[in-house]
Specification:
Two copies of one chain form a homodimer.
Chain A lengths: L28 E7 L2 E8 L4 E7 L2 H11 L3 E5 L2 H6 L6 H10 L4 E4 L6 H12 L16 H15 L10 E2 L7 E2 L1 H6 L14 H5 L5 H12 L5 H16 L1 H12 L4 H9 L5 H22 L7 H6 L5 H10 L20 H28 L5 E5 L3 E7 L11 E5 L3 E5 L1 H34 L1 H27 L5 E3 L3 E7 L2 H6 L3 H7 L7 E6 L5 E5 L6 H17 L7 E5 L3 E5 L12 H15 L5 E5 L7 H15 L8 E5 L15 E11 L2 E10 L7 H7 L4 H17 L10
Parallel strand pairs in A: 1-4, 3-6, 4-5, 7-17, 12-16, 15-19, 15-20, 17-18, 18-19
Antiparallel strand pairs in A: 1-2, 2-3, 8-9, 9-11, 10-11, 13-14, 13-16, 20-21
Chain lengths: 736, 736
């Protein structure tokens, strides 16, 4: 009796048979879902173990990628294909998606296989990991649904778990330098580790004078471009501005008077309108001739002239607003008096009525004073009662009989006369008509502004850019920054680089007192994917290792946003991602220990770094036992160096002195250390990075500086001596 | 020729000669400054090296301490003594200070010796440290001025630096359990490490229903009392409330309607008055009979009866507010209509005038409709124009000749008549008088409330306390907390303790999915100053060491604020400070590396812990080289254990397995580990803390779980094997 069981179901997407596979190309199985958040896709090649997810709010961005993959089989939620086919025909993206799926083999699965939570479980199980942070993926990434369906389908068809799935990568478009949240936090780009803006890179390089400029700077930092021409354009503009400090100063003064046009336009478009906003448009437009003249002063060959040409002066709009709007403007439409006298004859006429009436009132007051002989007689006004004549108690006996008593107050009586009543009506009437007229004129002005909203928005964008660039010029002058050279090469060369934030902090007397110095010691860096790829930095605590490696990352980032850099010279071969793993914090509520967080971040780097990436790693392997940590750090170094030709440019700071021996085995690894002078058992930090490995860590001396009791320090020294004398210097296994 | 130089200047405060010193007592030199921030003092005993600073906003709090010290010599800013003597005589604190100084030897120094920045420099230099964080002192502590003057004076008089100054302690009053900022942050008391309230201890144990209750809870957590009777009182009250869920539920419902009396009183006192605030007083008072009845239901012997007796129902005030205030109250005094009809006959009369007038107006409207035959005729009102008759365009030909035209609108005309004008005046008059009357009545009500402000404030405080305690009862029931036993002993015994925050987090499906479980594994703890003083905890990463040691600190804190605790049973000998050193972060801008921060925090603990303190230390020595770190961790353990009899209760989690050997040498050290099951090179976390040392750290398995590439993992295993086979197990030097 032969027992028979299904051992494998063949489908075009899951076949592994060599004769069915074209060795030259990948052979993808792909799952897709579409929801309000966009198109979510997962694909895997069972033959190579390549496994990726992608998501995009706009299906049209993702479809070209999927088309290029040319998947052999698609996994869809049952009914989706039909739904897409019958979508309203203005939904062109859905129709494009349908057109992509239609000619291919599509397999339907029930919707519950595509649920995100289910996908997370399936995917972590198949990869044998606790969470997906090591792959840079959040636990609710919307493509986990399709990824789970994919794994489920593959498992069913193989009748076993696909064993070669080892990592999951997110596909991203390649147009910006990527900075993951851990790196933004570690490098203190937008806020310092204390959670304040102060102490961040953003605040250190922000010299903008306008709100729109500050926002643009934040956008540039959040998504640095990879477009070499654009970077060079910005950097060159900074140079031009910097070269003419006189006109730069002028330009910044003009920019100071520029108002927040994008926000004003937004409010006007959303019917939140007040006269002062219109004044903002007027005041900004009135700066433009001066700004354009100043820009022209940089010369006709200047790159600034192309920015200049994007500024639209809109002279007729300016003329209209200037002639129509009063100099001082109220915030509230109901306050009136925002239209300038002379702009509208009808309005002027209505206003003059009011003025005439006011004159009439003061004539009346004087006349009544004379007639009654009451010197303190006053004509007053309240909202509730209108105009009245106020007579104090002492003078009540002088009140003439034609006065009509309206109200008694503590100090006297209030009267009206028939004349006053009639005039009151006239005044109210005139005021109301004037206000209505003003509001109609205002509406016309708003319409005129909104007619030019495109030109205004473009002009505002250009002003914001000028603001950022002019700010950077000032920054470069203040702190002696150099213009970086950017190219498509694989080198990173910094001569006398400084940490842009720490350098500025040191000028703060309180900080300087803590560090005992006010000047920052510059250091050089030379990295290259193909030569000095991996700098291994050893040296004592507090000597400046962390500052040094972060400074390299920050300088690179600054260069790629187009800013100048705190260095003597700087050359940057474009970097596609900056990764960092520094510091340590745990996340107990989510069940992640310090070491787990550290390993998650490290895994994310190893899984996603390319040859064009820049990696800074600070003390990998701290959170576990000595040998475990050393083994992991060692394997990580080897992994980053694994390609015989090239690898990501990496700065690796470590206390594992054992790793310095790897220089013998790894061709592109270079040892560096941070110099220290020792003097009478005390250490002096020189803060110079020099070639070669450090010999000691000086941890105990630093502990002494931190205030540890002297008995503890002395005892630690004894223990250390004993440990070191016992040590039979470990010989390392050579690289595999 | 004999060269002579001054070698020492003798003064009573700086003498070190044995015959001048009473060995039974300290011999203090003390410096004082007084400024707007309060009294700042520094004192040192050159004979013992004791060196302390203290500051208090109220000099009267610090003077008893200084008096007890009985300093032999005082250092003051020149002229201060004279200034204090001639202070205005209502400044009793200054006079007390003068009385303290006057009989003593006072030495004047110029004011610049007392500057804080100068003091920081002098003190760090004399102590040989980089900053004062290791002593728990901020760089701008106001007592650094006097401390600097003290050191300066001592140096001058000794003609050399005093050499025995090794640490600086801040004197603090001993009435509350101290939690330094690092511990508040590390234990996530008020906010989680992500900076959110969610995930903090505060949010986990907050079940209050009122704002005043939530504020009281925060105050209790920020400064837990050391008063055993008070702690036991709170804890017993929680028990009583818990025992009667029916009445507890009732009580919480009543409390939900209690308004924020302290804030309302504050605003009323500061003339920010609106009718709705008074309604808040009324609504709260009206809950009191029900609250008191519910509290009485807990029985006459209940401790709740003493709280009950602090609640003052103030029936006559409630009666007044209820009869005087309308049900629905406006926010603005000018809106009127907040005084109830029937409360004041005069007000009712004024209001009825208005009502009568309104009736007159509607009669007029009907009459005019009939007289003119215009059906659409309406009597209307605007603020600017008062009452008018509106006639639409179509009916203008029907307008009678006695109508006076006041205004033309798009749709018609507005008229008045003489009658209408006269009535309008009457209406305005009546309304104004009514409003004035209401405001006077309101002022009287406010005065009546403020007359009872002391009773109201006391009642509000009691309500807030009831709110916190009732909330804790609900918490204890929800999560099965036990009532801790508190005593003056030196034991800390927890059976089946749980982490209060993590336990609740695990019920969140998203978190539970990440950890693969929803139930928290409880663990026991037994510490005692004189027996099992120091628990050394080893075990793999991710196994739960950090969670465990933090849970012990949190349970202790909960017990000391009077809350019940997440455990089966819990006994706490009062703790005077909780110290923690966990996680790692650097502070590059201030020039502090991760290791420096770690050492600062450790130094603070070693310098300030007493036998009654609770210390949790997580992986001391991580940020430096292996042997340096091990030596320091080792010396720290020995230091904490140094007294042969007793020491602070300590939980010490570490990856230095070498330290487990210390159990042989240190009598009160106990080894524990967190259990793990190994299965097919995978590890399963059991999360049980068991006696005995761990044998491995499983760092590489955890790295695998974190998603590190499999090639890296495999290579790390090879390296580890090699390292371990080379290792000639280090033999440790025995304790000094």
């Amino acid at each position: 009796l032969v027992r028979r069981a299904v051992t494998r179901i063949l489908s075009p997407g899951t076949t592994l048979a060599a004769n069915q596979l074209d060795a030259q190309r990948n052979h993808y199985l792909c799952a897709l879902t579409l929801d309000k958040a966009g198109l979510h896709a997962a694909w895997l090649d069972l033959s190579t173990g390549e496994f990726r997810v992608a998501t995009d709010a706009r299906p049209e961005n993702l479809l070209p990628v999927l088309t290029a993959l040319d998947p052999a089989e698609l996994i869809l939620i049952e009914g989706d294909l039909e739904r897409w086919k019958t979508a309203p025909h203005d939904q062109s993206a859905i129709h494009a998606l349908h057109a992509f799926c239609e000619p291919r083999l599509c397999t339907d699965l029930p919707g519950y296989h595509f649920e995100t939570a289910e996908g997370l479980r399936t995917v972590t199980t198949i990869l044998g990991v606790l969470n997906l942070q090591g792959f840079g993926l959040a636990h609710d990434h919307p493509a986990l649904g399709p990824a789970g369906a994919l794994v489920h389908y593959a498992t069913e068809n193989l009748c076993a778990k696909p064993e070669n799935l080892r990592s999951l990568q997110e596909y991203r478009s390649a147009r910006t330098l990527l900075l993951d949240p851990a790196t933004l936090r570690n490098l203190e780009i937008f806020q310092s580790s204390r959670g304040t803006r102060d102490g961040s890179l953003l605040s250190a390089i922000n010299r903008t004078g306008t709100a729109a400029g500050a926002r643009l700077l934040e956008r540039w930092l959040a998504a640095p471009t990879l477009d070499l021409a654009e970077i060079q354009r910005r950097s060159a503009l900074v140079g031009e501005l910097l070269a003419d400090p006189l006109h730069l100063g002028e330009l910044r003064e003009w920019l100071d008077n520029v108002r927040d046009i994008p926000r004003i336009l937004g409010r006007l478009q959303n019917r939140l309108r007040n006269p002062r906003e219109l004044g903002g448009i007027r005041d900004t437009l009135s700066q433009l001739p001066a700004i354009r003249a100043t820009l022209s002063a940089f010369g006709p060959n200047s790159q600034l002239s192309s920015l200049n040409s994007q500024l639209e002066e809109l002279p007729s709009l300016l003329q209209l607003l200037t002639s129509a709007l009063a100099d001082a403007l109220p915030n509230d439409l109901a306050d009136g008096n925002y239209i300038r006298a002379g702009h509208c004859p009808e309005l002027d006429r209505l206003r003059s009525l009011t003025t005439d009436n006011k004159t009439w009132l003061s004539d009346l007051e004087r006349g009544e004073q004379e007639r009654t002989g009451i010197r303190s007689l006053k004509i007053k006004f309240t909202n509730n009662f209108g105009y009245y004549i106020e007579i104090t108690k002492a003078n009540l006996h002088l009140v003439p009989p034609d006065y009509i008593r309206r109200q008694t107050t503590v100090n006297g009586e209030r009267y009206v006369t028939e004349d006053l009543r009639t005039k009151e009506k006239e005044i109210f009437h005139a005021e109301e008509n004037a206000l209505a007229r003003e509001q109609a004129l205002f509406a016309a002005l708003v319409a005129a502004v909104l007619d030019e909203s495109i030109a205004l928005a473009r002009t505002a964008d250009t002003l914001a850019e000028l603001d950022v660039l002019a700010g950077w010029s000032v920054l470069a002058r203040e702190w002696d920054y150099c213009q970086p050279v950017l190219d498509e090469g694989d080198t990173l060369e910094i001569i006398e680089g400084r940490h842009p934030v720490v350098e500025q902090m040191l000028k703060d007397p309180a900080v300087a007192a803590g560090r005992g110095t006010t000047s920052f010691v510059p250091n050089d860096t030379l990295l290259s994917s193909t030569d000095a790829q991996l700098a291994l930095i050893t040296g004592p605590n507090m000597a400046g290792k962390s500052t040094y490696i972060r400074q390299v990352a920050l300088i690179t980032l600054l260069a790629q946003v187009g800013c100048w850099t705190p260095a003597k010279t700087c050359r940057v071969g474009l970097v596609d991602r900056i990764f960092s793993r520094v510091g340590a914090s745990d996340d107990l509520a989510r069940g992640n220990s310090t070491f787990m967080v550290e390993m998650n971040e490290t895994a994310n780097i190893l899984n996603n770094a390319t040859d064009r990436s820049l990696i800074i790693l600070d003390e990998i392997g701290r959170g576990t036992s000595t040998y475990d940590g050393l083994s992991i750090a060692w394997a990580v170094v080897e992994h980053l160096h694994r390609d015989p030709e090239r690898g990501p440019r990496t700065l690796f700071a470590t206390h594992y002195q054992e790793l310095t021996q790897l220089e013998k085995h790894l061709a592109r690894l270079r040892n560096f250390s941070v110099a220290v002078k020792e003097w009478n058992d005390e250490i002096v930090f020189v803060r110079r990075v020099i070639p070669g490995a450090a010999d000691r860590s000086y941890g105990i001396q630093v502990a002494r500086l931190a205030g540890l009791p002297i008995t503890v320090i002395d005892r630690a020294k004894v223990i250390l001596q004993k440990l070191e004398s016992d040590d039979t210097s470990v010989e390392l296994p050579s690289a595999a």
